[in-house]
Amino acid sequence: MHCESPIKRRLSRKIWVGSVPVGGDAPIAVQSMTNTDTCDVAATVGQIRRLEEAGADIVRVSVPDMEAAEAFGRIKQQVNLPLVADIHFDYQIALRVAELGVDCLRINPGNIGREDRVRAVVEAARDKGIPIRIGVNAGSLEKDLQKKYGEPTPAALVESALRHVEHLDRLNFPDFKVSVKASDVFMAVEAYRLLATQIEQPLHLGITEAGGLRSGTVKSAVGLGMLLMDGIGDTIRISLAADPVEEIKVGYDILKSLRLRSRGINFIACPSCSRQNFDVVKTMNELEARVEDLLVPLDVAVIGCVVNGPGEAKEAHIGLTGGSPNNLIYIDGKPAQKLTNENLVDQLEKLIRQKAAEKVEADAAVIARG
């Protein structure tokens, strides 16, 4: 029930990764990367399908050699999501996956080799309508830039990116996106801010090698949050040493917090204290797990007492305020019914699913009316 995001996004060129628009006025795309052996087709397909269920818009797959390229082709036939092939050094791998239906090529033109090899890859991409992602990383800067700057810096990342951009500009190929990732939040943020003023193409955001589930989530939220608040960013990947599905969940949570994407339940919950009239933490843990399958955007407030409960509940689609002897449920901002602590999660889940179904029906009616 909150208003639209006040963020004014940077205007960028729109490209298409398969059926997914990236840049321009398109929603910020959420993506992840498989961590299975690409040659294990069944495992990789299974992981991509789990990522799709979690809400991924795009998935990247590493293609280190020709055997993996052939496996990529078989994977592509079995999944629905657009796939990005991550390729380094061997331009022939890029040419092969282009034949096999890749939706985007993640390369650095500078490490593909001679000009004729870069041209061959670009012409294949142009012929088949495949965009390119230039991916610059602080951990793999060119040797001359390492020598020039002494260490990775925002300026070094941007200079590296612009070198690769120049390759594509020379070949009159504008359909690309760029990332300038670093594990250091300040370095990455400054690099993206610098680059955003120098090119029109969409930017792929990420804090690379951010860490494990907890620490990586925090670093990513801080870094990407600063950039997204500036209106910078057209697609995001949260890099976690964790199940890739968690990257999608965290990505959506970041975007939901800034009102840039809506998917599933947006919970507002208090951290709990001795005033609570029910076990807030236990209730939230159970409730989040139970309604994870719901994709309808709803605001649900779960507050343990009457200090902040009524105020938060009135702003949510469904709000629970702890009270004695009974808790109070608000529906669309108005007091609706009282609930005891007995079977509280069961009752809440029922109300949430009912509200979600009503919202789906109402949205369908609006679409039908044109």
Automatic annotation (TrEMBL):
Pathway linked to the protein: Isoprenoid biosynthesis; isopentenyl diphosphate biosynthesis via DXP pathway; isopentenyl diphosphate from 1-deoxy-D-xylulose 5-phosphate: step 5/6
Residues spanning the signal sequence: none
Keyword 4Fe-4S: yes
Leading EC class: oxidoreductase
A biological process term (GO) from this entry: terpenoid biosynthetic process
Residues of the IspG C-terminal domain: 266-353
Needed cofactors: [4Fe-4S] cluster
Its job: Converts 2C-methyl-D-erythritol 2,4-cyclodiphosphate (ME-2,4cPP) into 1-hydroxy-2-methyl-2-(E)-butenyl 4-diphosphate.
Protein name from the UniProt record: 4-hydroxy-3-methylbut-2-en-1-yl diphosphate synthase (flavodoxin)
Organism: Aquipseudomonas ullengensis
Gene: ispG
